[in-house]
Fold:
Amino acid sequence: MSHSLVTMSYIVATILFIFSLSGLSNQETARRGNYYGMLGMAIAIIATALSASVTSYTILIIALLIGGAIGARAALKVEMTQMPELVAIMHSLVGMAAVLVGYANFMDTSATLTGVEKTIHEIEIYIGILIGAVTFSGSVIAFCKLSERISGKPMLLPGRHWLNLGLLIGAIVLGWMFLQQSETGGGSMPLLIMTAIALLFGIHMVMAIGGADMPVVVSMLNSYSGWAAAATGFMLSNDLLIVTGALVGSSGAILSYIMCRAMNRNFISVIAGGFGTSGGEAAVIEGEVTPINAEETAQLLLDAKTIMIIPGYGMAVAQAQHTVNEITKLLRDKGKKVGFGIHPVAGRMPGHMNVLLAEAKVPYDIVYEMDEINEDWGHVDASIVIGANDIVNPSALDDPNSPIAGMPVLECWKGGTTVVLKRSMASGYAGVGNPLFVLENTRMLFGDANATMQAVLKALKG
Structure:
C-alpha cells in the first residue's frame, strides 16, 4: 500500500474515532459510537499491516492472533462487575507498550538523526518511557484495588508530598543527564533509574488514593494511557498514534475534571491523597435500624406515586439490573412515575451504572444525573437504594471530619421513605459509616439484591 493511501486511511480512522467519542457521550448513541470506534481501529490495523513499515508478517500475524485470543476470551468471560478492573489492567498494557517501544528506539543503532532532531527524538523517548511507566504501575495497583486483591483504603506515607516532589525533581535531573550522556552514545543508566522512579511514583500515587476516588483514578489512568500512546506515536513517527493518543488523553483528562467538579473535589488534591485522608475521625453512627421485608416494600411502592431508584455497586455484584427493570416496567404500567438517580462516581468506574442500566434496556429518558434530581427529592414518595453507600451518605454534607466531607451526594433522605438494600451493615468502598441507615424514614431490606428484588417483584405481581 502506498504512503499516500496509508495516510488517507489514517485520516478516515481518525474521523471515525472522533465520531466514536461523540457517540459515547450519550447513552442513546453509545452503541453507534462503539461501532465507529471498532471500524476505525480495523481500518488503522489493516492500513498499518499493509504499509511499507511492516517487514515481518509472521511476527505480526502471531501477535494479532495472541492479542485477539486474549481479547476475545476477556470479552466472553469478564462480567460487567469486573469491567473496572479490566479497564485498569488494559491501561497498564498501553503503558508497558510505551516503555518497551521507548527502549527499543533507544537501543536502535540504525537511527541516523543528528543535531536538534536527535535531541528531540531523545526527549520523546524519555517522556514516553516516563509516562508509560507511571501508567503501567499505577494501573496495576488500580487493578489490584478494584479487584480487592489489596485494600481499597489509602496508604499514606509520612511526608508523601515531599516524596512525590523529590521523585519529580529526580526525574527532571535524570532527564538532563540522559540528554547529556546520549550525545556520546550513553544514557542507559539515567534512563533505567528514571524508569524505576516512574514505576515507584505510579505505585505510590494510586496507593495513596482512597476507594471513593477510584472512578476518578480510572479516568485519570485512561488519560495517561492516551498520552503514553501519543508519545509512542512520536517515537515511531506514526501520525495516527499521535492523534488517537491525544484524543484519548484529552478526553480522559476532561472526564476526570468533570467528575472532580461533580464531587466538589480539586483534581490535584485527588492525586495528592484522595478521599479517606482527612485529619479528623468520622462521627460514630448511633441508632437502631428499622428492617422491612419484601412484601412490605412492595406495598410501599404500590402506595407511592413517585419512585426513585438509586443503583450502586451492590446492584452490579448481584446482577440485579434486569430484575429492577422488570419492577420498573410493572410500576410504570400501574401509573407510577419511576426514575433512576445516578451519582457521577456510582460503581467503580465512570458511567458504570449507566452501562448496567443500558444493558438491562432501562429507558434512557428516566435516568437522571445527580444534579437533575437533587432539587426534587421533596416530590419523591419512595426511594430504593440498591447496594449503594457512599453516594447517599449524609455525613458528606454535615460531618466535616468525615473522609468524604464535601462530596455532593444523592439526598434521598429529603424525600418520603427510603428503602436501602444491603447484605449487611458493612461500610462502603470508602470505609465510611452511613447515618442514613438509622434515620426515621429509612428502612433496611437485608439480603442479596437480586433475590430480594425478585421477592419484591413477586409480591407486586400478587
